[in-house]
Amino acid sequence: MQTLLREIRNTPLLWMLAFVPIVLVAEAVAPHFHTLLFVLSVLAIVPLAALLSHATEAVAAKTGDAVGGLLNATLGNLTELIIAIAALRAGQYMLVKASIAGAIVTNAVFMLGACLLLGGLRYHVQEYNRAGARLSSGLLLMATVALLAPSAVADLEHLPQGGGILNKLSLGISVLLILAYGLGLLFSLRTHKELFASADHGDDDKEAHWPIGIAVGTLLVVTVLVALVSEIFVESVQKAAETFGMSPAFVGFIVVSLVGAAAEFAVAFAAARKDRLDMAVSIALGSASQIALFVAPALVLLSYVVGPKPMDLQFWPGAVTMVMIATVTSAFITASGRSAWFVGALMIFIYAVFAMTLYVVPPAGQG
User: Fold this and answer.
1) For the CA atoms of the chain, what is the radius of gyration?
2) Distances (CA, A) of 365 to 16, 146, 148, 249, 305
């Protein structure tokens, strides 16, 4: 604990952890002050993300970048899963689907692009293991095709009304996606793990990392706190969205995805700045593929338990297009195994086009 307290004292950003109990108390005392809760929740998530970054780096130093990236993506997506479950329980399926599609696009385009940009501003050219990027891109492409199938057949005239066929198709696809995700983990972490080894980083070995016990304990506690604060954020941001004229699709696709992935951003950006692009790419693409292969099908299965009715995987046409473009773009960009800052800048511009389009032209029925 002394190591953790010393880290907090010596890092001014972590002093903002004081906002965590403040936002929890404010939510209990004044739950209707949505604007205040929105600001406080954002201020609380930022230091929690920084603390999660330190803990994950310590674990990655012991386990390697591949496992460290998987661990961080899992913890980050656990937060988004909890947020989506809260919306699922309330029957807000548009928000849930928007957060799924938005998380895939945000991780595969914005996070990856920002990592390439930040790393490229410090290093002239960066290299990383293409095998890991190819695996994540392949999994993401397969998952994207599976997620697009219900949307592609939804408008067929011979389908019976009521959505029963789409629910059955979505349920079957969800089981296949989870099976594919498990096989991907077996391939990368067990049978062919030598293909995904990261480059050695001599400078990183000299850094003093936290003991593994403190790091793992911090990861668990901070993940729970991020989940609690994120739920407050989602509840408050929906009311704030009405004030700013944002549709539920924009809130889920852009706002919830960016804030929900704050912890992953902190770790991935720090890794890119240290020339550990293997870990940064692993977090970005690994998180996107994990959303598509595990979180989305898990939400479909959970909807049969906690939702008012089963949820299918039919997305609106704009989301389908953006997810496919994001998948193809990330696969194309990472195919070379080398990067410079301008590549990252182009990917951020693509994400900005998506955000602007969704804000100006919301899905039908949400204008």
Assistant:
1) 20
2) 40, 26, 21, 11, 28
- HEC sequence for 61-98: HHHCHHHHHHHHHHHHHHHHHHHHHHHHHCCCHHHHHH
Structural contact between residues 285 and 140, judged by C-beta atoms closer than 8 angstroms: yes
- Amino acid letter for position 295: V
pLDDT grade, residue 149 (50/70/90)?
confident
Strand partners, 126: 339
User: Are the C-beta atoms of 294 and 136 separated by less than 8 Å?
Assistant: no
pTM: predicted TM-score of the whole model, two decimal places: 0.83
Average the pLDDT over 49-78 and give the result: 69
Please return the burial class of 349, using the count of CB atoms within 10 Å of its CB with bins 0-12, 13-18 and 19+.
exposed
Paired tokens of 2: 């002394």
Averaged over 294-302, what is the pLDDT? Answer: 91
How many angstroms separate the CA atoms of 36 and 34, rounded? 5
What is the three-class DSSP state of 174? helix
Structure tokens at 80: 């988004």
Predicted confidence band at 228 (pLDDT cuts at 50, 70, 90)? confident
Instruction: Decide: 105 and 256 in contact? Cβ < 8 Å.
Output: no
> What integer pLDDT is reported at residue 301 of this predicted model?
92
What is the structure's pLDDT at 365? 58
- DSSP 8-state code for residue 190: I
Identify the residue with better confidence: 145 or 203: 145
- 338 beta partners: 127
Q: Which two tokens stand for residue 159?
A: 């389908």
- Give yes or no for a contact between 147 and 288, defined as CB atoms under 8 angstroms apart: no
* CA-based nearest residue to 226, from 41, 364, 86, 68: 41
